[in-house]
Amino acid sequence: MDVAVLGAGMVGVCVALHLQKRGRAVALIDRRGAAEETSFGNAGMIQREAVFPHPFPREFGVLLRYARNRSIDASYHLAALPRIAPFLWRYRRHSQPQRYAEIARAYARLIAPCVAEHDVLAADAGATGLMRRDGWIRLYRTTEKRDAGFADAERARRDFGVDCRTLDARAVRALEPSLTAALAGGIHWIQPTTVADPQALALAYLRRFESLGGLLLQGDAATLETDGSGWRIAGARGPISAASAVIALGPWSDVVTRALGYELPLAVKRGYHMHYRPHGGATLNHPVVDSENGFCLAPMARGIRLTTGAEFALRDAAHTPVQLERAEPVARGLFPLGDRLDAEPWMGARPCTPDMLPIIGPAPRHDNLWFAFGHAHQGFTLGAVTGRLIAEMAAGEQPFLDPAPYRAERFLA
After folding, report:
1. Residues 292/42, Cβ–Cβ less than 8 Å
2. At what angle do helices 81-94 and 97-111 cross, to 10 degrees?
3. pLDDT (tens place) for every residue of the chain, 413 residues total
4. Is 318 exposed, middle or buried (0-12, 13-18, 19+ CB in 10 A)?
5. Minimal CA–CA distance to 178: which of 277, 275, 278, 282?
6. Residues 330, 336, 338, CA angle at the centre, nearest 5°?
7. CA–CA separation, 390 and 372 (whole Å)
8. What is the pTM of this model?
9. Residue 64 CA: distances (Å) to CA of 110, 148, 287, 307, 308
10. Which DSSP symbol is given to 223?
11. Bridge partners of 233?
12. What is the DSSP letter of 68?
């Protein structure tokens, strides 16, 4: 093959499709099928409004609440703290106001074309019917949080061209009449597109990739090694050789990069979801996020999906869906959820860097090796943008945006 793309989540699928569209012979390699890990369980939002990445909290009250480890929006494994403390310290430093402002500007440049880039791939794959064009709603229970949210929305509109509508309680009710909690208002983010089955969109892209001659192969990315001037991976049907390789393994990327001598600061924020049957004919027209409690309810093909915030833990630690158990009764007070539809909570791991920016670009110490991971909460959103950016660089084209802020060198002395 010309290129082996390791990892068949949304990012890897988009990278592979963009390369195949440029005439490369591409093998997309995963230990499982496509979009069966983190790309499977998200809230299904392509978030044009997400110009501000999630910073480390600075308010003393918020930090104290998190320290008690009883919150819905964030929790942690006490046993994991010694391992993740260095990451958290760097995360906190990058969240200081001046540095965070620089990061937000770089982040916003990736976010700005996310809907347009997905639209191109979806049209090419015949998948535009999977997308809805009516955005999502952030809900506020108190006027204090609402007014602070409105101020942030105005800043996003002024500085980054994000479009939205501010809603009072009556306007929220008009858009979502089945909501049952007392609310102070909300923000209707208009530009994002939503998908009722995130995996279905990734699979549509995969089918287009295969129709152009691309191959989805089962293999072990941890076996990646140099092979003369190229790369070799152990596949289920035998070795796979390629002139170039792209590491797009999400939270497992550091397994491969560390073996190649790269000490990149990658950690995970784990999250859970559960599907529910709507009770009593209730309908949810948009994904909604409860700002005070940090969970999302999204209308999905399978039912109403409840997704949780961030669990700071080791990637492969046992599942501990305590946030889901805390969120469910609050979510039932917001929307009439019926029976659970899944036998067990689903869990995924979001791959995070301490400066909140993904790692996109060439490997500093190896030829013909590319990195495409670390997208944190926005792998689904940024898959199409990342795919185009990697493909343009790998093909020797002029990148459609400056890739310098996302290069791995920023973490390597």
Report:
1. no
2. 90
3. 999 999 999 999 999 999 999 999 999 999 999 999 989 999 999 999 999 999 999 898 999 999 999 999 999 999 999 999 999 999 999 999 999 999 999 999 999 999 999 999 999 999 999 999 999 999 999 999 999 999 999 999 999 999 999 999 999 999 999 999 999 999 999 999 999 999 999 999 999 999 999 999 999 999 999 988 899 999 999 999 999 999 999 999 999 999 999 999 999 999 999 999 999 999 999 999 999 999 999 999 999 999 999 999 999 999 999 999 999 999 999 999 999 999 999 999 999 999 999 999 999 999 999 999 999 999 999 999 999 999 999 999 999 999 999 999 999 97
4. exposed
5. 282
6. 100
7. 8
8. 0.97
9. 33, 20, 29, 24, 20
10. E
11. 240
12. T
Q: How far apart are CA 48 and CA 381, in angstroms?
A: 8
| Residue labelled with tokens 């310098």 | 404
Contact 50, 112 (CB under 8 A): no
- The single-letter code of the amino acid at 121 is L
Taking CA atoms, 33 is separated from 155, 195, 206, in Å, by 41, 20, 10
Buried b (16+ CB within 10 A) or exposed e, 62-72: eeeebeeeebb
Tell me if 390 sits within 8 A of 360, measured CB to CB: yes
The owner of tokens 């918020």 is 62
Report the relative pairing of strands 267-278 and 303-307 from DSSP bridges. antiparallel
Query: Among all chains, which residue has been given the structure tokens 């069966």?
Result: 36
Residue 323: strand, helix, or coil: helix
For the chain, counts of helices (H) and of strands (E) = 11, 22
Ordered by where they begin, the domains of the chain are: 1-55+95-130+193-265+355-413 (3.50.50.60)
Q: Residue 44 burial by CB count (10 A; 0-12/13-18/19+): exposed, middle or buried? A: buried
Alpha helices in 196-242 (DSSP H): 198-211
Side-chain-side CA neighbours of 179 within 13 Å: the count stands at 28
Q: Give the list of residues 6+ apart from residue 402 with CB closer than 8 angstroms, or none.
A: 109
Tokens 């995969």 appear where? 206
